[in-house]
Design a protein that fits this description.
alpha/beta; Rossmann fold; 9 strands; about 45% helix
């Protein structure tokens, strides 16, 4: 029932640290809680109720309590969660107590923007290397880093202790880059290229596909339109026009 | 049991189009199937087995069959799915049979890259307007579009029939922009700002937070490291160093 499970908890001396195998949806929400908690801490709050935290994180409070119970955090009745302690716990579980080095491959339009994105540094990451296959881009300086040729990846990965690879190449080049990242021992990849990567067991890939996000919204637009349509009315017309035969 | 449920199916004449309320995870996978199907069509395939499609989309085949069954698509035993028909069905469900107009608010580093991203056009979307609150950016031309002041949003939304708003502003400005989008009738928002938006019922918000994707990968890195650690070995040391107290 302690809110403080991992770090220096009574009885943990000599124990193997056991990281819970959390549901993927819980893992995806922990960063939201973390950001909300940092905002609360910045505003001087020392404790927060589950309702307060759930509102700040945009998650319903029953879900939040369940998520945090996976970490062994139950808060204190009438007081809530200790903000600093919960930040420490979540940062521990997310492995953010060390700053991870990121290699970004592909500095085209999107990669260029990512290289200059200042939202990573404050949240546990350091863009440590920029690489590109295009010789005309090699040598370019972006945000204080010089673009290197992707063939230098093996050397760069060792020098910079790269933990995470970000792929921002065109789709046609992405699999080859993924293979190169895996070959140099990178086991976590964030893929912005609109394609499915094939990687060996033990390599985690997260994908961000901007068009897919829009397509999901499109579904909801379409569904909202169909719900407000009158029988035989506008939406039916739209269907016929849109699909034809 | 027909693969062809919505468009012009026998008996649908005069029926109200009923869009199934699909599980959110299914909605998120439909664009993956669609992309894989387009690739198959481009390569000249007329049919595809569920195994073939699931491999191309990077989704397991039982999940794929279940997802498609929500659309009333069961394929044909021994033949599989008709590629063209399934593309039509998914595009219909996702509302991609009309090209939706997107307004992008915030043309800083990331917004600039999004404005120039050519991955939207082929997938059902048209960036129809760029807006920014910074007067020094207004008038700038990006990819053939002139940046307009965000105060022009009401006029732009009507002129361009904006269906989806994309927010790429700093976190501090995002809620105000969301309010402005909602005020002009936009009910679908893609938010790149690292913050939670509060919107009325009936407005859908999808969020892309690049640092959160890295934090999720960090969890998996951390967990992989803890699984390979020996009892009392490196990982335990890491824990103590990392957390202290």
């Amino acid at each position: 029932m302690s809110q403080h499970r991992h770090p220096g908890a009574p009885g943990r001396a000599g124990a193997v640290p056991t990281l819970p195998d959390l549901p993927e949806a819980t893992v995806a929400r922990l960063p939201e809680y973390l950001r909300a908690l940092h905002n609360l801490a910045d505003a001087g709050h020392e404790t927060v109720s589950s309702e307060g935290l759930s509102a700040a994180a945009g998650v319903n409070s029953a879900k939040l309590r369940k998520d945090l119970s996976h970490l062994g955090s139950y808060g204190t009745r009438g007081v809530g969660y200790d903000v600093t302690l919960l930040i420490e716990q979540i940062e521990y579980v997310l492995g953010l107590t060390q700053r991870r080095a990121v290699a970004l491959v592909g500095v085209g339009n999107l990669g260029h923007a990512l290289a200059g994105y200042d939202g990573f540094a404050g949240r546990g990451f350091r863009i440590a290397a920029l690489l590109d296959a295009d010789p005309s881009r090699v040598g370019e300086e972006i945000n204080g880093l010089v673009v290197r040729h992707v063939d230098e990846l093996p050397a760069v990965a060792v020098q910079e202790s790269i933990a995470i690879g970000v792929i921002a190449t065109p789709a046609a080049a992405a699999q080859r880059v993924a293979d190169q990242l895996v070959a140099v021992g990178v086991t976590s990849i964030l893929n912005f290229a609109p394609c499915v990567l094939s990687v060996p067991e033990g390599v985690d890939v997260r994908k961000v596909d901007l068009a897919i996000e829009l397509q999901i919204l499109s579904f909801h637009e379409h569904r909202k339109a169909s719900l407000t349509a009158l029988p035989g009315g506008l939406a039916a017309t739209e269907t016929q026009e849109a699909i034809g035969t």
